[in-house]
Amino acid sequence: MGALQPGLPAPTMIPRGWNIVVIDLKDCFFTILLHPHDTQARNSHETFHQNARAMHRQFQIPLNDAQGIVRTCPQCSHY
Known about the structure:
Elements: H1 25-28, H2 36-48, H3 52-59, H4 63-72
């Protein structure tokens, strides 16, 4: 991460003496164990790159979970 990033406050706006914690959430996703049903959907997406709605129908997982799988895919997150 560079010195300034879009969407983050300028360093001069952070009060002196405040503790700052930076967490990269995209790395935290993989430390959470997935439900076995979600693991099957993730493996299928890695092979076939289905969209979220198709995974939602095929694996009966919540649409939000299917969208999360698609968003974390390096190839699909660009589209």
